[in-house]
Amino acid sequence: MAMAQQHLDGLERPAISNSNKVEQSFYSTDMPSASSLDHYIQLLQPAIDRSVNTQRPDFIGHMTSALPSYMPVMAKLMAGLNQNLVKLETSGSFTDLERQVLAVLHRLFYRQGQSRVDDFYTRYSQQADTALGVFCSGGTIANTLALWLARNRFLAQYNVAEEGLVGAMLKSGYRGFAVLVSERGHYSLSKAADVLGIGRKQLVAIAVDNNHRMDLQALEQKVQQLQQQNIKVIALVGVAGATETGSIDPLTEMAAVAKQLQCHFHVDGAWGGAAIFSSEHGAKLAGIELADSITLDAHKQLYVPMGAGMVLFKDPAAVNHIKHHASYIIRSDSRDLGAFTLEGSRPAMSLLVHAGLHLIGAKGYAALVDHSMALASSFAEMIKQAEDFELLVEPQLNILSYRYLPEWARHVECLSSPQNQRLNQLTVAIQVRQAELGASFVSRTQLRLPQYQNQEINVLRVVLANPHTDAKVLAEVLEQQRGIAKSLAT
After folding, report:
1. Is the N or the C terminus of the chain less surrounded, counting Cβ atoms within 10 Å?
2. Four-CA torsion 71, 77, 108, 104, nearest 10 degrees
């Protein structure tokens, strides 16, 4: 075990491995065996050596970073207890603990600063036929749960859960149902629309403004168009921390539109929801308290291991629209959380969030958010001051996009398509080469930017959530990219 721990604790591993090369031993299909745990660790060595070191301060390309030092201990406890949160009979008091965690976060989003709320949470946090939210494996399932509830809630009068979507649509008289989200919506929403029978074409992408927030005028036009086609909007989704840009939709205004349409208002705060802890940046989420449901990923900015997402519901009774029972495990009069989840058997990931709320605390999470936001602003300024880099999206949270801008591309009022194509190729080459070198890692994506007549632009993307990342690290990342770009030109 010492051998494995050495690799986990140190920085011997590259920021990212070359995933195109497969370790030879992984081609074997013989039934494996190891004589002991230490022997198995030796066999596992190639995987350990080539695993991605997500804790490195210069691994700033994705939404995964360092974990608190206490987390391995808590994860070991969770595995050792092996509680299954599908039912009280397999979880005991961990069901109560999970409900408490959900209540704490529910209060933070929906009733922060309000007085006389204790009666509400005393009544609903531990009640059998209600739930303030549910834990799940991540934002994809959380968003699916939210849209599942939205679909069943809106179509309850047509008995959609029993009749199916086609039967409900025929009874309703509508030609179809739609879910609206901005162009920056997460791809999990497309999966949800597919699984729920709504259809990917009916997940309607609304144009964004110059700040990559949903364009309200475009939203209004699309709503009118759908109404003319006799297609009913059953859900409007706001984004609080877009994956590519970190942008936050105008949630207050969107809530008003949802109310007018009498549809479900969901906010995907998987990434940006953690800003609620910050007194400095929490106001950026204004309007999130108006949402019928909120997605939050604890394995992002609440710093727990992978596999901890959740969806919160404003109305504790709303979960009854997706409630299920089974006589052998989830009975109608029980407080089993499995009655309200899409997943069945499920580990006690809420224990890890419970630990974070106690050991990091609200002030600690606020400090982490404030640090990452300040770092994003500093990095944006660093890029602006550099003559050979271009900031493409001003950071609203702690995600920002930029690219290398060589001398031949400077001082051009509006780059032509051939020039942008050349820059696109250079951006990809820099990102790929930096990853191959293993010195540091940033990701890349494609954006249509108004300053370039909405041409598709390849951009470098950084996610600044690791508390060990600082300005010195970011300056070194830029210098590496500068050196790579110059070497590519020779």
Report:
1. C
2. -160
**Measured distance CA(182)–CA(224) in Å, rounded:** 16
Secondary structure of residue 265 in the 3-state scheme: strand
146 to 20, 186, 264: CA distances (angstroms): 36, 14, 9
Orientation of helix 350-359 relative to helix 361-385, angle to 10°: 90
Q: For residue 323, is it within any domain?
A: yes
Q: Where are the alpha helices (DSSP H) in 262-360?
A: 298-301, 350-359
**E strands, 27-175, where?**
133-136
What's the distance, CA 167 to chain centroid? 33
What pLDDT band is residue 455 in, cutting at 50, 70 and 90?
A: confident
Burial label, 211 (beta-carbon count in 10 A; 0-12, 13-18, 19+): middle
Examine the domain organization and report whether 308 and 431 are in the same domain. Answer: no
Alpha helices of 265-413 — where are they, by DSSP H? 298-301, 350-359, 361-385
Give the span between the Cα atoms of 192 and 177, in whole angstroms. Answer: 13
Residues of the domain holding 476 = 370-489
* pLDDT tens profile 321-347: 998 755 445 555 677 888 888 898 999
Cβ 298 vs Cβ 356: under 8 Å: yes
Residues 275, 397: contact at Cβ < 8 Å? yes
Cα(288)–Cα(484) distance, rounded to whole angstroms?
42
Does the structure show a pLDDT above 80 at 248? yes
Owner of token pair 């066999």: 43
Residue 42 lies in a domain: no
Residue 158 and residue 110 share a domain: yes
Is the pTM higher than 0.85? The answer reads yes
Contact 273, 257 (CB under 8 A): no
Three-state SS at 333? coil
